[in-house]
Design goal:
Elements: E1 20-23, H1 30-35, H2 40-44, H3 47-50, H4 54-68, H5 75-78, H6 92-96, H7 101-128, H8 140-153, E2 172-174, E3 178-182, E4 190-195, E5 208-210, H9 216-223, E6 234-240, H10 241-244, H11 249-257, E7 263-269, H12 275-285, H13 288-291, H14 296-302, H15 307-326, H16 332-340, H17 346-371
Parallel strand pairs: 2-5
Antiparallel strand pairs: 1-4, 3-4, 6-7
Helix pairs in contact: 4-8, 12-15, 15-17, 16-17
Length: 373
């Protein structure tokens, strides 16, 4: 169908049944890189430079092999890889639509940091291997393509190293249950991908890989899009406890005894309250009388010290969420209206999904607390 890629099941695939096998010798992994007869010595002779940085090693290898064209064993694979999308490619006006200054700064800094990585890499390579590498051929743009391809397509959590796995990364992604493994049972040197849980496929239907437990910040940075109502998304709420309790030395002393940092950040997810944040809200709501009761020094971590104090803690929690909501330039209802209008600008769609998901979590926590009254 045009330029759309997809993978179709040629027969029924049941849960926990491998649907794809990829032999190790066609993967692009650190062992494959180091064993390469053309540039393997670059990696082995500079082990200190590439140590614990599989991404850079693979990026160098991809950049080198892609330039070899038809002579490369991996040409059929590398030649069809699309340019990786990222929020780092967005304009300042497009980044503003995220309504997240921190993510905007991170996106702006990525090209700068990649240029620094590229220059550091070439400063090491050129004096030693000028017969293999040059800035005229192996440009910054080609390095960025290679590095971002690794970020977007590589596997790694359940195999010994980060690796590109041809064919496995051609599957489209969605939030389904999948799993992969390597070198198990009698499958030495084989990568396997299979559906798990309730996920299975009928013959003739498209099969998918999973994004994994990725929040929208990660998806935007590495893929350039955000999921609507992403179940793995989070929002971070930060508290300056020293400022919060500047007029109450007892509370600051109590935090110091428990080695609690004066600056705390809490990650909130849809569907459940953050109990660590609730503990700090309980501390904020405690009266001097309650602070004088030594038993409450432990109670506030896991339970309310009194009915009145617990209601006060809930109010503190709600106020923090409402302050976070007030920091956005659009409401959740306005975001929903934008998404329902189905704008053609996919970056606007991604930005709106991103900020809507954050507000959805905040509203969800407010509703949970109000329902507890």
């Amino acid at each position: 169908m045009g330029q759309v890629r997809g993978t179709i099941a040629t027969e029924d695939i049941h849960s926990n049944e491998p649907m794809l096998y990829v032999p190790e010798n066609i993967m692009i992994s650190p062992p494959i890189c180091k064993a390469n007869p053309l540039i393997g010595h670059v990696f082995t002779e500079n082990d200190g430079f590439f140590k614990r940085d599989d991404d850079t090693m693979l990026a160098v290898f991809v950049m080198f092999e892609k330039e070899r064209g038809l002579e490369s064993f991996w040409h059929p694979y590398l030649s069809v890889l699309p340019w990786p999308c990222s929020v780092a490619d967005w304009s300042p006006l497009e980044l503003k639509e995220l309504q997240d200054r921190r993510l905007g700064q991170e996106a702006t800094m990525r090209p700068i940091k990649l240029k620094e990585k590229y220059n550091t890499l070439m400063d090491m390579l050129l004096p030693k291997y000028s017969n293999l590498f040059s800035k005229e051929v192996h440009t910054l743009e080609k390095y960025v393509f290679a590095w971002m391809t690794i970020q977007a397509r590589a596997f790694g959590r359940r195999i010994p190293w980060t690796a590109l796995v041809p064919f496995a990364d051609f599957l489209n992604h969605t939030n389904v249950q999948t799993k992969y493994d390597f070198n198990v049972e009698h499958y030495d040197g084989i990568f396997r991908l299979y559906p798990t849980g309730e996920n299975e496929y009928k013959k003739g239907t498209e099969v998918f890989n999973s994004y994994g437990r990725r929040d929208n910040r990660f998806l935007l940075m590495e893929y350039g899009f955000a999921l609507y109502e992403n179940e793995w998304d989070t929002i971070t709420i930060s508290i300056n406890l020293e400022e919060e309790h500047r007029n109450n030395s007892k509370k600051l002393d109590l935090l110091a005894r428990f080695n609690v940092s004066n600056r705390r950040s809490f990650r909130l997810r849809h569907g459940r309250l953050n109990q660590d944040m609730m503990s700090m809200c309980r501390l904020s709501s405690m009266s001097n009388y309650e602070m004088d009761d030594r038993r409450n020094e432990l109670r506030f971590w896991s339970e309310g010290v009194s009915i009145v104090s617990e209601i006060g803690a809930q109010d503190v929690y709600i106020n923090m969420l409402q302050e976070a909501l007030a920091g956005y330039s659009t409401t959740m209802e306005e975001d929903i209206s934008i998404l329902n209008s189905e704008p053609e600008d996919q970056r606007l769609v991604a930005a709106t999904r991103y900020r809507h998901c954050k507000k959805r979590i905040l509203h969800n926590h407010i509703n949970i607390l109000k329902d507890m009254r």
